[in-house]
Amino acid sequence: MLTFESNQPAGAGRTKGQETTPKGSNTPLRARSGALGMVLAAVALLTGCGLAPAASYVPDAGPGTIQPVAGAAGAEVTVTGRNNTEGLILGKMAVLAARTAGFTVSDLTNVPGSQPTRSLMLAGKADIIWEYTGTAWLSFMGHPSGIPEQDAQWQAVHDEDLGNGLTWGAKAPLNNTYALAVTNETAAEYGLSTLSDLAKLPVDQRTFCVEPEFNSRPDGFGPMLKHYGLDRGSESGVPERNIGLYDVGAVYSATDNGVCTLGEVFATDGRIDALGLTVLTDDKKFFPAYNVAPVFYSETLAAHPELEGILAQISPLWTDTTMRGLNLKVDVDGQEPADVAFEWMQEQGFLTGAP
């Protein structure tokens, strides 16, 4: 096995990532209040270091299909989200949607890591977040394995989180799960479209660039190979010398440059399209589902149930392809996440430019 240094670009968008923290998040709410102070202190420290302007900026907007709702005037809601590309884009859309509906919105997006955002939600210090089903199930709730079937995974996290004071809204088609990708040229040369097609490759072409975490996870690389009938470490399967360890950004460039035939990617990363990579379909459903869905602090949703309907207009339009295009505009083209969120929502008619 080979190990390589990272060359991950600044701002590269990992989304569901950061799920290495977590267990025990389904303990009683009051038990978490002590940790909240540390979370808020960390957020305050970061905002003091200059992250506040990026987190608080969103363009001014007017009503579109999202209209002001009765009872929103004077009502305050707080939106939180992670500080990666996709987390920022999704968070800004929630901020824009709630403001357009007439709520007074505190923008607490740009929070570093999954666990801090989760803690804010559990403590009622934030009211809305876009969350991934697989992240909640595996990382926050501490289950040992995910559920590949998307509806079943959503239902499972929905039911368990009700006891934590959180209510999940309808999931989006977007499923930001692990995936393997090859260059478009390699896919065409060997007829690759699914993970089952890995068996078509000659052994000397079964070379992989993966992250250390994916390489060692119980739901990661080795079990995936086994699920698809390939023996890791075998001369007739995937020899260890065929496996290289990289950080996230380096995997993409190494795959594109032909250092390895296959690279571990995340299904909604904008670099997939930018580099001309083909994502192989998980046709035997190995990977857990990571659909994104709005999650609400239940007390807030009870007071303002219209929030669920507002965000339910947006999430059905998010597919992996849509999100890759939006992430691309930030990670490759250098646009602000808030501007990307605004432009897409304006294109879909949810809002208009400020009068």
Tags for this model:
three-stranded antiparallel beta sheet; about 350 residues; 14 helices; globular
What would you note in describing this structure?
- With about 350 residues, this protein is an alpha/beta fold.
- Helix content is about 40%, strand content about 15%.
- The chain is built from 14 helices and 13 strands.
- The strands form four sheets. It has a six-stranded mixed beta sheet.
- Helix 4 crosses helix 5.
- The N and C termini lie far apart (about 60 Å).
- About 15% of the residues have low confidence.
What is the percent of helical residues?
25-40%
The largest sheet has its strands arranged as: 1-9-8-10-7-11
Mean pLDDT across residues: 85
Structural class: alpha/beta
Task: Please provide the ordered H/E string of secondary-structure elements.
Answer: EHEEHEHEHHEEHEHHEHEHEEHHHHE
Draw up the topology in text.
Elements: E1 2-3, H1 33-56, E2 61-63, E3 76-82, H2 85-100, E4 104-111, H3 114-122, E5 128-132, H4 133-140, H5 150-162, E6 166-168, E7 178-183, H6 184-190, E8 208-210, H7 212-216, H8 221-227, E9 243-245, H9 248-256, E10 262-266, H10 271-274, E11 277-279, E12 292-297, H11 298-303, H12 306-312, H13 320-331, H14 337-347, E13 351-353
Parallel strand pairs: 1-9, 3-4, 8-9, 8-10
Antiparallel strand pairs: 2-13, 5-12, 6-12, 7-10, 7-11
Helix pairs in contact: 2-14, 4-5, 13-14
Describe the structure concisely for a colleague.
The protein has 355 residues and is of the alpha/beta class.
